[in-house]
Amino acid sequence: MQFMLLFSRQGKLRLQKWYVPLCDKEKKKITRELVQTVLARKPKMCSFLEWRDLKIVYKRYASLYFCCAIEDQDNELITLEIIHRYVELLDKYFGSVCELDIIFNFEKAYFILDEFLLGGEAQETSKKNVLKAIEQADLLQENIDFQMRLFAEPE
Amino acid sequence: MALKIVKGSIDRMFDKNLQDLVRGIRNHKEDEAKYISTCIDEIKQELKQDNIAVKANAVCKLTYLQMLGYDVSWAAFNIVEVMSSSKFTYKRIGYLAASQCFHESTDVIMLTTNQIRKDLSSPNQYDTGVALTGLSCFVTPDLARDLANDIMTLMSHTKPYIRKKAVLIMYKVFLKYPESLRPAFPRLKEKLEDPDPGVQSAAVNVICELARRNPKNYLSLAPLFFKLMTSSTNNWVLIKIIKLFGALTPLEPRLGKKLIEPLTNLIHSTSAMSLLYECVNTVYIDVNTPPLPSLSLSLCLYLSLPPQLCVQKLRILIEDSDQNLKYLGLLAMSKILKTHPKSVQSHKDLILQCLDDKDESIRLRALDLLYGMVSKKNLMEIVKKLMLHVDKAEGTTYRDELLTKIIDICSQSNYQYITNFEWYISILVELTRLEGTRHGHLIASQMLDVAIRVKAIRGFAVAQMATLLDNAHLLTGNMQRMGICEVLYAAAWICGEFSEHLENPMQTLEAMLRPKVATLPGHIQAVYVQNAAKLFATVLKSQEGNTDSTAAQETSQLMIDRLPLFVQSANLEVQERASCILQLVKYIQKLQQKDVEVAEEVSALFAGELNPVAPKAQKKVPVPEGLDLDSWINEPPSESESEDEQPKAIFAKEEPKHSRPRREEVDEKELAKRREARKQEQANNPFYIKASPSSQKVYQEAPGVEHIPVVQIDLSVPLKVPGLPMSDQYVKLEEERRQKERAEKKKKEKKKRKEKRSGRGKKHDSGPESEEDITPAHQVDIVTEEMPEWSIITSYIFIKTKSYCVTVHVCSSRPLADSEKLPVRSHRAAEAPKSPTEDGDATSQEPKKKSSKEKREKKKDKDRDRKVRISTGLFLCLLGNHSHLILVSSGLPGINKCIQKSKLVFCFLPLTKVYDIQGNLQDGSQVVVSVIFENKCDSFLKSMEFNVLDSLNSKLQRPEGSGPHDGLTVPFQLPPGVSNEARFVFTVQSIIMPQKLKGTLTFIVKNEDSSTHEKLDFKLHFTCTSYLITTPCYSDAFAKLLESGDLKCSSVRLEGVNMPFHHLLARICFHHHFSVVERIDSCASMYSRSIQGHHVCLLVKTVSIDAKCDEPTLLGNVLDEIKQTFSQC
């Protein structure tokens, strides 16, 4: 996978993950073009399109579009599966996830994605394992936060 | 210290955190940029504080802003600071920010190396994990080099969580720092058998990706993967493994056989569509495009898996209600279509259904498929269906796409599938009714092309075009339909050029001179005016015969009345032509008043047939010696001059149409003179293709039409052009015609059968109509555009012998990409004269009962067949002073059985000859030698006679009635610097011995003042190797062959050969047309077959070759030739 984008129906970018090194300018250009192309498609159309030399796989969940770019030889259906699995993970983590969850906790959305995919490849196919890893890391974070707060409390 | 922290957190309470920032941005929709710039100022303040918590918060906000598109590269150092925090909370944020914001040119990355190394070795697995994740996004070659070792150690970490990540990130490291691959590979391989399934799957992932880039290094892992494939139940892993095998199989054909069973099982059993899709895709698609040229063997995988199985599975996908599956099914189908058109064609109904889908991308995919699925039988049906779609399609883009597809489908491979051109013309006419299309231009060029190339259709086409011209107002009425008025260009030209077919030329002439015409784009008006003059000539001719001369004078008067309108045209082209013709008509009128007969002379103005020339014909004309096309004629303009030139260029751009060549405005005398000269030239020029089609000559690029003022008239009349036949009726007619034909054929067959043996044998049902059975209603004057450039000269080797210089062209069978082509003129002359064999075959094989039509049809097929043969290509080489013909087939199945060729070039002075020898597999005794004669001297060569001294074994086939020693006349003459090809057929009795044939070529060299008789001796050398054909053979078949005991044994020692074993094998393959059956270390078995079907088997070791063949003499000679090959290196 080359990159993954999440954007709203209004075309606002909600999350971006690039697995190929590109400069900011190029990233912006690609994002703009792709968001336009995908939003222009009618709801009943299939989830795949050919774009430049890449294949784009996208799917809409509520008001959010999840959009992945894969190479010519990659499997479209498994990419769709990846998107779906990521949505399930978000759903499990946030508890019926909505767009606002991702906006306000965008770093969490990234952490989940990073546990699920690494360098563009699926690293963990078990949902349970991904969530376990995230929870434990969060626990670690909260412990520290908690200690910090204890420190700060006396005042 | 404590106070500081406390103070920090108090500050923090007043700071915005990420949520506040997001909320703030949402509340400031109107002045977002301003709000964000204040936020960035705050963030800058926060970053200046010592408190790491504040900094982390700031960095977190920056990451968000970066996503919104703001530049945060200035904070790169602060990000590194946060990354280095010992607290996991901050480290996590720091790494996230880095992975989002850093790229290869971020210079602070250098500072992170030690920090990352520390994190990688942290006792906390989450610290390590976070560092690995971050690294996967911003790893640079430097980082990869410095950290490769650390990551490699992590691959054996105790926690699977870390192992998994480390394995995956290794792929990125390999990409950035390839040197790390070799030391890390053994460990990576170990991970394939890791107890943790996640780690295992990660290793499969990485190796699969690596193997896609360079499969041959991973062949040794095949057994391991095979085990994984049969044991794993994880679809993610299975998909990767199948992909990996897709890359490996072309390199190791035996894998294919092994895979068939598990793959078939998977295809049948899996419920996961993604896995099924991967299986089908890999088996049929990836294998078809192997990275190596040795494709003949690798194809066995898909050859042995029946395509029906996959196509049926794809059908299930396409029938699914899920749009995605439908789309992918069609996509995969279109890939299978390329190799197995038959198995896809049976699903035509399904594909046609997809045209009704509401998803445009699915419709477009289906359209793509249709292109490859048409045949003579179903073309009309498919196009009819498409025409229905054109009518109801919404959106011009899709409609235009449909239109171009219809034309593409019909016109593909020289209108191969069109049996009735009347039908096609009516389809084109119907397409002109399309609203708002941009492709008027395309339709017009099709009309022109068909009318010019299909002579039989001209009468019909002219009638249709006349109706179109008559109803021109329907086409031009609306501004939106501007694109379509291009067809009038074609219509006017066809009516003018072929005016002799017009039923009522007078009416058409009037239609062409209507005042409304002046509203058309300039270039179309110009064609109108010119062709009105042609029509005028035709009308005059018909009227002058009559006793009443007034009619003719009235016609002239009509011209004189109407033409002034065009003389006033703003368009230079129109104006110029109109005024020229106007004056001419006035003069004619004067003559008419004196009762002088002028029609003959007027029509002479436009006499002569316009013959199309192949688009590439110009390339065939050699550049005269001493002419350098790239050199400047003048001194190149200096810098300053070109600047001055600039404004002029702008002016010129505004009116590009005026620069069209004024080729029609030459007076009669000049015209005749030129025509005469051209005829002369054509007669002598072997490059002139007598009837090769091209529309380019007559149809020129239309200039832009947008800015031409046109009166806009609202159309309320229906857009159907009255009086035009509908294409549908042709479908019916054609159906009837075919039925009739079939009935007749059956009758004939019945008769035949009756005559032969009445009553005996079962009645055979002739079954469904096959492609070949359909004969076109119109005999089409289609000659293939041009011989394909089947071989490209890639290198020259010059070897000087005693008296002459021999040039050997090493030809490659692979058609080269444009970029690879050397700028060398090919030796293949334009349309080669029909070879004697072909003419002979065509007549001798034809049962006499067949109609001449069918005969011609068959011949056409033959031509096509020959093209295939030619494209197989060949190699050749020169050994010592002897020129050996060496044949190497390209090994493509299906082509193998065709014909082998070889080619040598003798560079004589003044004549060059190239000869090809084709052995014919179907007829093991016939060899076609095609010779290219190239005249390298400055004189004209004529009366060439080719003669060969026949041996007992090989004879030159001479026409009936000529004696055994008569030469064959070469059917052309050669002007200086020109080459052409002639073919000669030899009958060869036995192929077991090499042979040399002596021959002579006599010719007359004609100079300006003298002509001399010259003679040239040559030798044709047929080696035994040249009768061998590379034929792939499987090891089990090979073993059976050896066991059969029918083969005689022989062996030869290779002395003084010190080359690597694989070079040795390659040499035998290349020079002697063997294919490797199996290779074990420094021992290999090889196989080849002769054109008469002898099997030749070799067992090659480094110093000797053991061989078996059912013909000992042939074997002996082949071995001698092999030995000679090696004695020369």
UniProtKB/TrEMBL annotation, chain A:
**Which biological process terms from the Gene Ontology are attached to this UniProt entry?**
intracellular protein transport
The record's annotation in PROSITE patterns points to: CLAT_ADAPTOR_S
Residues in domain AP complex mu/sigma subunit? 1-140
Which keywords appear in this protein's UniProt record, sorted alphabetically? Coated pit, Cytoplasmic vesicle, Golgi apparatus, Membrane, Protein transport, Transport
SUPFAM superfamilies listed in its UniProt record: SNARE-like
Q: Which gene encodes it?
A: ap1s2
Membrane topology of this protein: Peripheral membrane protein
Q: Which residues form the signal peptide?
A: none
Q: What does this protein do?
A: Subunit of clathrin-associated adaptor protein complex 1 that plays a role in protein sorting in the late-Golgi/trans-Golgi network (TGN) and/or endosomes. The AP complexes mediate both the recruitment of clathrin to membranes and the recognition of sorting signals within the cytosolic tails of transmembrane cargo molecules.
Species? Sparus aurata (Gilthead sea bream)
- Does the record carry Protein transport as a key word? yes
- Name of the protein this chain belongs to: AP complex subunit sigma
From TrEMBL, chain B:
Localization, UniProt? Cytoplasm; Golgi apparatus membrane
According to the entry, every stretch annotated as the AP-3 complex subunit delta domain falls at: 666-794
* Membrane topology, from the record: Peripheral membrane protein
Comp. bias intervals (Basic residues): 747-763, 850-859
Return the InterPro entries for the record. Answer: AP3_complex_dsu (IPR017105), AP3D_dom_metazoa (IPR010474), ARM-like (IPR011989), ARM-type_fold (IPR016024), Clathrin/coatomer_adapt-like_N (IPR002553), Mu_AP3 (IPR058898)
Ranges for the region named Disordered are 627-692, 732-779, 817-865
In this chain, composition skew of type Basic and acidic residues spans: 645-681, 732-746, 817-831
Q: Name one Pfam family in it.
A: Adaptin_N
What's in the GO CC field? AP-3 adaptor complex; axon cytoplasm; endosome membrane; Golgi membrane; presynaptic endosome; terminal bouton
Question: Where is it mostly found?
Answer: cytoplasm
Q: Which UniProt keywords apply?
A: Acetylation, Coiled coil, Cytoplasm, Golgi apparatus, Membrane, Phosphoprotein, Protein transport, Repeat, Transport
Sorted alphabetically, the Gene Ontology BP terms of this entry are: anterograde synaptic vesicle transport; Golgi to vacuole transport; neurotransmitter receptor transport, postsynaptic endosome to lysosome; protein targeting to vacuole; synaptic vesicle budding from endosome; synaptic vesicle membrane organization
What the entry lists under PANTHER family is as follows:
AP-3 COMPLEX SUBUNIT DELTA-1, DELTA ADAPTIN-RELATED
Q: Which family does it belong to?
A: Belongs to the adaptor complexes large subunit family.
* Described purpose of this protein according to its UniProt entry: Part of the AP-3 complex, an adaptor-related complex which is not clathrin-associated. The complex is associated with the Golgi region as well as more peripheral structures. It facilitates the budding of vesicles from the Golgi membrane and may be directly involved in trafficking to lysosomes. Involved in process of CD8+ T-cell and NK cell degranulation. In concert with the BLOC-1 complex, AP-3 is required to target cargos into vesicles assembled at cell bodies for delivery into neurites and nerve terminals.
| Name assigned to this protein | AP-3 complex subunit delta-1
Source organism: Sparus aurata (Gilthead sea bream)
